[in-house]
Amino acid sequence: MHRAPLGLMSASIRTAVQASLLGVVSALCALHPRATVAQEVPLTDPGTSGLDAILRVYYHRVLRGSFEMSYCSPDQDDICFNGDHEDRRCRMVGCRTDAMVNDFAADVERVARERPDNPLAIAQAVYALSRLGRHPVAAAVAKECAAVEWWCELVAGMAYHRAGLEDIAEGRFQAGLAEADPEVACRLEGVSELLHEADRHRYEELACADRGPFHDRFWWLADPMLTTPGNDRWSEHVARRFELLLHERLVRATRLDVDDLQRSLVSRHRDRHEALVVRRGFEDSWAGGFEDSWAEGFRGRAFRSWVSQWAARYQFAPTSPLGAGLEALSYDLEAGEFDEGYTPTDYGPFFELPAQFGRFRESAKMVVVVAARPDRTPLDPAEVRFLATDRPRGALRATGPLESALHPTFVAEVPYAPLLVAIETVDDRGAAARAREGLGVLARDGLGLSDPLLVEGSADDLPGTREEALAAMRGSTRVDWGREIVVYWEVYGLQDQERIEVSVGVSGEREAVTTRIMSALGVRSEAAAPVVAWSELATGSVHPMAIAIDVRALQDGDYTLVLAVSTASRGTATAERRFELDLR
């Protein structure tokens, strides 16, 4: 699938860089044998064969210019820190000449090629070259890594990820972590900073060796696109964590922390900085500085990093606790300043896809139906894909889209199990949209109801069967036109001609809502009331029902349709449908 880049680099430039990088990788052979026995990489080793001196000279060198910018953000197409987030002293445009940057790149490359068996030297060189945009050179240097093999895989993964080759990077990261030193692997895979507070304490009590199932479930739910192979958000997470190891070493070598103070790394810096990087990525922006120093007086400068949304635009981690189950699953794609955030480089912008999900009962399988409205997003017409899965890396077959439906509509027979259901699309420009929902299990036996479906129609044209309802199924739960809404559902576990009692109500956030049922498969009730009730005879073990509800008296807002069906001997079954009313 072709994806259009979202980053600052143009599509043609990125394509050329990736083509060049792939050419370098394919042409290189393994020049140095790699160690195959897992071993701890000495991250606290005081020397890296001359690289520490190169880092100190470069980052302590006097910068050009005599002033500092007070604001810089890629949101406004600024290139902050001169394109190198580790260069935090660089707070103006052109603070380093091209010659200075080129000399630095040449020096770190030389040291790495001289000592390919030194894990920190080669990793720091690849880290620097990647930050500076020298992706083919970074990949070539990573290829020469002759340290322990799992470390070299991680270094290569960093180089490929920085170059936008996420598919290759993900495989290298997986290979590296599979054999990595347990302490390093535990840190690189940790997700504590990304979790809902209700999950965090339980997660942190788990031993590193016991966290695998939790990680599988978290990344299953945090995968940006379930219908696309791989998980680029996971690769981004490992890349951020791995680069934090190198960032710590760089700070120790240069004795420059994020506040530009010449002192050694302290735990306060690590805890605060690592949490922000894991959630949002490395700094790409700032606010404050020179102009604010006068107002701050002797208290110092008011300086904030991470003021842009460019690198952390979308929040893909669930906003609900994982422990609450799939039925409680919720997302908020727009990331805030302190949220988990990530901006894909190969696809986007990213939109919420209007959609409606529903469940029906069959004898051996549960039936899931989904309809969507891609025409209500800024995407060009594109293929719409559907996926239902009951576990990480599990996929279930679906049929559709239905040719008779008004909107892209999919139907899947699935096991009776909690499900993660998604409908996604990416257009030829790379713009993406998705709808995702966790669905619980319908009762397999006894009296029960399907999910109520919002369908197109009127009181004079109600669907009488599921097939008719699916053909008219709305691709959204937002009601923004017309004088009434039509709802279809099914009642299960009945005897033919058994009398059932039916009630329908609509509740809102403000106050009790008065509804008027226009029709119910031939049963008409013109009385306006908070709950409308009637009785009728079942037409079989599965009894289809449809109603039209007059919404002219309702205000804009969020509502819940509540259905209840009871019999004399089988108790009561209920179902709900949330919808948004926008009549403007």
Write up what this structure looks like.
This protein has 584 residues and is α+β, with helices and mostly antiparallel strands. It folds into 3 domains: 52-305, no CATH class; 348-443, Sandwich (Immunoglobulin-like), CATH 2.60.40; 445-584, Sandwich (Immunoglobulin-like). The protein contains 14 helices and 21 strands. The strands form 5 sheets. Strands 11, 12, 14, 16, 17 and 19 form a 6-stranded antiparallel beta sheet that branches. It has a 5-stranded mixed beta sheet with strand order 13-21-20-15-18, with no helix packed on it. Helix 6 (149-162) crosses helix 11, helix 7 packs across helix 11 and helix 11 packs antiparallel against helix 12. It is elongated, with a radius of gyration of 29 Å. The two termini are 39 Å apart. 43% of the residues are buried.
Q: What labels describe this entry?
A:
single chain; 584 residues; alpha+beta; Immunoglobulin-like; 3 domains; six-stranded antiparallel beta sheet; five-stranded mixed beta sheet; 14 helices; disordered N terminus
List unreliable stretches of 5+ residues: 1-17, 21-38, 260-268, 291-300
Taken as a percent bin, the fraction of beta residues is 15-25%
Please tally the helical runs, counting DSSP H or I stretches of 4 or more residues.
14
Question: How many extended strands?
Answer: 21
How many domains comprise the coordinates?
3
| N-end to C-end Cα span | 39 Å
Content-based structural category: alpha+beta
Taken from the alpha-carbon principal axes, the silhouette is: elongated
